[in-house]
Amino acid sequence: MISATPETRLRTRVFALVTILVSLAAMAWALHGVSWSDLWEEIGELDWRWIAVGALADVAAYVIQAWRWSLLLRPLGPVSTWSATRAIFVGLFANEVLPLRGGELIRCFLITRWSEIPISVTLASALIERIFDGLLLIAGLFFSFRYLQRFPLNHGQARALGLLTDGAIFLGVLIFVCAAVLAVAMYWREQALEVILDSRMFGWAHVFIEDLHRIGHSRYLYLSALVSAAHALMQIVPIYAVMQAYGLDEGSWKGAATLMILLRLGSVAPQAPGNVGLFQVLSTLGLTLFGVQQAMARRFTLILWGVVTLPLLIVGFVALVATGAKMGEIHRDARAEMRARQDELARPW
């Protein structure tokens, strides 16, 4: 089995350290000037019925994602929505406690452990999910930019919006490139295998493309694409619910949708555990674009972060306990499985 070299481990640690430091700097900016007495008073005045709606919708959004994932994997093996739900919530819990979104690898590894589907294919299915989400995100960005044109922007806000636009363009190009590569593997199996044979790739890739071909020719692929829309819409509900609970005058479905899209765009970047830092910065930026005073936006952002994070921590911890394993063990086993796959790269088929 191939083990990580000291240089690779050092680069990973440095990258993780830089990510955490940047996230902490962003968090410090978001907390600057926050009146904790005002925040505590506002928490006491929240409409907790709306908070309950937001927390339940937050959990429901990932149950819908689990349903979508089980549909994607159905042509390859029997993966129940329940199993996919457990894997996703363990992965979400890992994202809250581990840096660099290690939960994506963990949830794919758990499905591999509970089924006979190779981890390379479960990772590819997760990539297909991200492409679905990305395409919806790009479409939503056009809606968001049109919505934001209603509000007067100062020079700094206009510049920040320009940076977000540039990031969206880059993300869109990346999504379409990934979608094209996967489309070739799913729909043009013979041509893809011919390329592999000509470049002397390896046997695992042959199985990988065969499985992708089965996904691409299944009606469940298109059904999962439709479920992606429900998954995206459900993610708007927690934000709207917290806006109503807080009594935010600028709160509306359009505003909640725009804020959700900004947060989803920010989630693409590597972050510290718990999405600390960038979540608060983007939320504050989005709310100030709507005309919310910055001091109020910073306080609201902390409440929103708590409502969308704590339920996932609680449900994720319960799902982890149900697996009967510790997070450290699962993470080590997941990385070992990936190294085993890398070891196959050294053996031509």
Quick structural summary:
By secondary structure, this protein is mainly alpha-helical.
Can you give a write-up of this model?
There is one protein chain. The chain is globular. By secondary structure, it is mainly alpha-helical. The model has no long low-confidence stretch (mean pLDDT 80). The protein has one domain (6-28, 38-344). The relative contact order is 0.17. The chain has 15 helices and no strands.
Topology of this protein?
Blueprint: H1 6-31, H2 36-44, H3 48-73, H4 81-97, H5 103-114, H6 119-148, H7 155-187, H8 189-198, H9 203-216, H10 219-234, H11 236-246, H12 253-266, H13 278-289, H14 294-323, H15 327-344
Helix pairs in contact: 1-13, 3-4, 3-6, 3-10, 3-11, 3-14, 4-5, 4-14, 5-6, 5-15, 6-7, 6-10, 6-12, 7-8, 7-9, 8-9, 11-12, 11-14, 12-13, 13-14
Q: What is the share of helical residues?
A: over 70%
How many strand segments?
0
Shape: globular
* Low-confidence residue ranges: none
How much of the polypeptide forms β-strand, as a percent range?
under 5%
What is the H/E string?
A: HHHHHHHHHHHHHHH
Mean pLDDT: 80
Indicate the radius of gyration in whole angstroms: 21 Å
Structural classification: mainly alpha
**End-to-end C-alpha gap:** 17 Å
Number of helices: 15
Largest sheet: none
**Count of distinct structural domains:** 1
Tags for this entry?
single chain; 349 residues; mainly alpha; transmembrane helix; membrane; L-PG_synthase/AglD; cell membrane
